[in-house]
Write a structure and sequence with these properties.
It contains eleven helices and two strands, in the order αααααααβαβααα. It is mainly α. It has a two-stranded parallel sheet with strand order 1-2. Helix 4 packs across helix 5. The longest helix is centred in the N-terminal third of the chain and has 17 residues.
Length: about 180
């Protein structure tokens, strides 16, 4: 409780904005997550039956989770995304959430904050990502060895600003930390 009271003094303005985004997301945007984590097959049948329904589903996510002030997805890219999901069937992408939010199993996220990930990790933070916790929260559960914050981009950074994400991947995978991890 004390940490929340002191948060204006403990966190950067960017981290405070991220906390606000996380609260908004939990209140207004996680309905899809609840459906996908409990009834992915039902949703998959509906979205797989109608490319127009899938278009509506995806465009809403693009609008809400992209940095629309700095990137507008062209119509042909939107249609490509829809067709990529529709041709294979919408269900495989939805089933991940069912597995990730399961009570038990290899993919369960139930205890993800109760154990430390010692493997070195790298982070690329984009301001319009839907859930970016403060850095100290991440450092508490993971061995963060690379971190970069960007001034644009969102949940679909690979589409919105691929050059930034690719540079981060190049820098991370060419770092001494990764080279040592790969050798040992």
């Amino acid at each position: 409780m004390g940490r929340l009271i002191l948060s204006p003094y403990l966190y950067t303005n960017r981290e405070l904005k991220s906390l606000e985004n996380m609260q908004y997301y939990r209140k207004e945007q996680d309905g899809y997550l609840r459906v996908q984590s409990t009834r992915p097959q039902s949703l998959g049948f509906g979205l797989g039956d109608s490319p127009v329904g899938l278009l509506g589903w995806l465009v809403e996510k693009f609008h809400e989770w992209m940095d629309v002030a700095n990137y507008t997805m062209p119509d042909d890219e939107i249609l490509t995304f829809v067709m990529m999901h529709w041709m294979q069937g919408a269900t495989p992408g939805l089933r991940y959430y069912k597995m990730a939010f399961a009570e038990e199993g290899a993919f369960s996220s139930k205890d993800c904050f109760n154990r430390y990930l010692g493997t070195p990790i790298g982070l690329s933070n984009f301001p319009n990502e839907i859930a970016v916790p403060p850095y100290d929260w991440v450092a508490w559960v993971a061995n963060v060895q690379f971190r970069r914050e960007h001034d644009r981009g969102g949940h679909f950074a690979a589409v919105e600003c691929p050059e930034l994400l690719v540079q981060d991947l190049r820098d991370w995978f060419s770092s001494e930390v990764v080279k040592r991890a790969m050798q040992g």
